[in-house]
């Protein structure tokens, strides 16, 4: 399984603005922020996409959400609100194939999250 830039961030081989770390996960500022606060929360063990999450990853994936909620408290935007997103594959906008939560805050967000694109027939 090939590695990504996130493995280098986990190994501290390239710099990142790390805001949280524990034995299972790492959170750091996105290099190209899409909101006043844009953090990425990643598992230290690589899972490529949501499609690759297995039963025994439940705890790890759940942990990422617990970290997101803790960071929202710590950064002071839990009450105002925020968005947590995990993109999957090309249509989902995934560019790094190591699952990660985007934690976005500091602005009132719109919905839906796509613009000017014609929906495909799916399902
Ligand atoms: P995706 O497009 O896969 O959902 O999100 C990948 C995110 O990783 C993007 O928002 C992108 O800006 C961020 N990113 C890519 N390379 C780096 C990097 O080297 N450092 C940091 N901090 N963020 C990165």
Notes on the structure:
By secondary structure, the chain is α+β, with helices and mostly antiparallel strands. Helix content is 23%, strand content 20%. It is built from 3 helices and 5 strands, in the order αβββαβαβ. The protein has helices spanning 5-10, 58-75, 89-92, and strands at residues 18-21, 25-29, 37-43, 83-85, 101-105. Strands 1-2-3-5-4 form a 5-stranded antiparallel β-sheet, with helices on one face. A hairpin with a 3-residue loop joins strand 1 and strand 2 (25-29). The chain is globular and about 40 Å long. The mean pLDDT is 96. Guanosine-5'-monophosphate binds next to strand 2. The site of guanosine-5'-monophosphate has 13 residues, from strand 2.
Quick structural summary:
The chain is α+β, with helices and mostly antiparallel strands. It has helices at 5-10, 58-75, 89-92, and strands at residues 18-21, 25-29, 37-43, 83-85, 101-105. Guanosine-5'-monophosphate binds at residues 5, 16, 28-32, 40, 87, 93-96.
Number of continuous helical runs: 3
Instruction: Give the termini distance in whole angstroms.
Output: 30 Å
- Annotation, overall tally of beta strands: 5
C-alpha Rg (nearest Å): 15 Å
**Biggest sheet features:** 5 strands, antiparallel
Molecules bound to protein = guanosine-5'-monophosphate
The low-confidence parts are: none
Strand content: 15-25%
Strand arrangement in the largest pleated sheet: 1-2-3-5-4
Pfam family, one: HIT
Protein name: Histidine triad nucleotide-binding protein
InterPro entries: Histidine_triad_CS (IPR019808), Histidine_triad_HIT (IPR001310), HIT-like (IPR011146), HIT-like_sf (IPR036265)
Motif (Histidine triad motif): 98-102
